[in-house]
Amino acid sequence: QRQRQLPQVHPCPLQPLARRAVRAGHQVREGVVFITATGALATLSGAKTGRSPRDKRIVKDEAAAQELWWGKGSPNIEMDEHTFLTNRERAVDYLNSLDKVYVNDQFLNWDPENRIKVRIISARAYHSLFMHNMCIRPTEEELESFGTPDFTIYNAGKFPCNRYTHYMTSSTSVDINLGRREMVILGTQYAGEMKKGLFGVMHYLMPKRRILSLHSGCNMGRDGDVALFFGLSGTGKTTLSTDHNRLLIGDDEHCWSDNGVSNIEGGCYAKCIDLSREKEPDIWNAIKFGTVLENVVFDEHTREVDYTDKSVTGKNQ
């Protein structure tokens, strides 16, 4: 879908003509996304087949300097406001050069009192579909009154950052400005950067509301008892949370407030290396039309995915 051009001036928000998430049909026609035997879309993210934590930066403004953990042992790497705006302008200029961009207006957090409005602007259609799946989709009525988002992502990942810009260590840069409520992605097309970037933002916003944000799977028993499953990515949270004897709440990101436990997301994001129907039937059966398979290998004749093939990455998505 064709969109109005992105803003040329920093403070201006995007006002898209069409707000619905766009399927990846454009890129299928362009030959960069393929339909597998189950109807799912398979694509490659390019040179970056996982997240780039060393290229992730947070603007260290006056508020962030006091509120975030910096220094030795901290995962937070600083950048200044000027460098962020330089990268933001580079991303916006690139997006403005395209014939079409893809815009998602969506929510984070199923708790209606504490949900966050997010806008994702991307160059690749499959990124739009990925976030359409991962976030909480508004109704038509909610889209009409969506208004200004609480947080915006400018995903120009097909275009590199200038590695000679201050603070840059490569052609990849994932930048978060908590004061401006914006994220800029340059030089990486790995879709997980958007998902995890927003999760990091929720770790900042939710504690300010006295809400605990959790990297965990979650399900509920028939009597209303809730279980949380903690672990790093790839350690089995999705598998445990999809226990057939319990009701799934979510597989990865949650908020725990006085109202209870709520899923931040609207979709599932599972590792599928060595995936099989017997071991993980729910994940297997979810791989159908509308699903995005990132960095997997499939037979070009049968279009059957080989989940044991680790030639692209040892942690297939």
From TrEMBL:
Pfam families: PEPCK_ATP. GO terms for molecular function: ATP binding; phosphoenolpyruvate carboxykinase (ATP) activity. Its EC number is 4.1.1.49. InterPro entries: PEP_carboxykinase_ATP (IPR001272), PEP_carboxykinase_C (IPR013035), PEP_carboxykinase_N (IPR008210), PEPCK_ATP_CS (IPR015994). Signal peptide: none annotated. Pathway: Carbohydrate biosynthesis; gluconeogenesis. It catalyses: oxaloacetate + ATP = phosphoenolpyruvate + ADP + CO2. It is an enzyme of class 4 (lyase). PROSITE patterns: PEPCK_ATP (PS00532). One of its GO terms (biological process) is gluconeogenesis. Keywords: ATP-binding, Cytoplasm, Decarboxylase, Gluconeogenesis, Lyase, Nucleotide-binding. GO terms for cellular component: cytosol. Belongs to the phosphoenolpyruvate carboxykinase (ATP) family. This is phosphoenolpyruvate carboxykinase (ATP). It comes from Aegilops tauschii subsp. strangulata (Goatgrass).
